[in-house]
Amino acid sequence: MGCRYGQSVSLSLIEAVDRNAYNAVVAQMPITSPLQSWGYGEARKVIGQEPMRFFIRRDGETVGAIQLIRKTLVPGVATLYAPRGPALQTLDDLPEVAKAIKKIARRTDIHVKIEPSVPILAGTEATQTDLEEEQSVIPAALGPFKRGVAEQPEHTILADLSAGEDELFNGLHKMARRNVRGSQRMGVQAGRDDDFEGFWDIFTATNERAQLGSFPRAYYETLLREANGDGSEAYIVLSRHEGRPLAGGMFLAIGDSTCYLYGGSIRDDRPPLEGEKRKDAKAPDAFYWESMRDAKAHGYTTFDFWGIPRLLDESKHSYGVFKMKLKFSTKRYWYPAYDLALSPVSPVLQKALKVRKQYVNYRSRGTTDDIL
Fold it and tell me: What is the Cα–Cα distance from 250 to 262, expressed in whole angstroms?
């Protein structure tokens, strides 16, 4: 990561009360993420979590921002979490950020988790050998923060949208190019859409099919409403064939980046207009390509496909998702997380949270393994 920790003037966290001013800082930082936007925190309120936003200042100069989500686990025990944050000019400031967080933390806050948005390039394959080699070069610590378990997908694919559209299309896998052209010939229409019900039908059907977890519907409705404005964007892209949404997703964007957070696809079970069998319209391919075109048209240069498996397993649903995304970009990256203990009981709590997570996975999917 090229991070150096030297002496620096003490930083302070100043509470942010104006969402426009806060989002403006998040958007302009070189190390940043849409998940640090004000609206993302508003959505977390729906699931009982408390967002806190701060400007990070040194001698009156704003050098970053951080959105900390307080999660109360049981009365008297809580954790702090900066989703894909903090937003910073440099990772060199993390030691002072740690000191500043300790000053504003409550006695009930046991530890804090950060996920600095500095992607680490991965290899070309997701084999066990590659995984071990890649993990070995990821820093074990960033100042006082120690390597932890990421809450957001740790492994993802990014696409650089700065090239021209023709160059971007020619850079797709030949199967993606063929499928996109085929979808166009079949009349598939894809683009931004305000049909939340169409998105919701696709999203819930995908979750049920793949045994994925999800938040209450109000969470996604709140995210779409609260994150769409004041310098950030939340929006839906749908891919339709003969009017019916067959693939789609919800995106969150700020600065020069957009992230495909939630979505999926469904089969078209309608009777064919002619013939004995309805042809595959390749709606998912159209969705991905048009989402990239739309992002480029709106000025975003980084497209985050948001989550691929740490290790490939052809028996899992996530393998098919990985292969689909890989057709549109081959640039895999890691976003590791780091923890800072705020209490001596933090290690015990971390173990308890891991056991609880494994139990939830087993109850919902019959395995203790995570989806990704």
Answer: 5
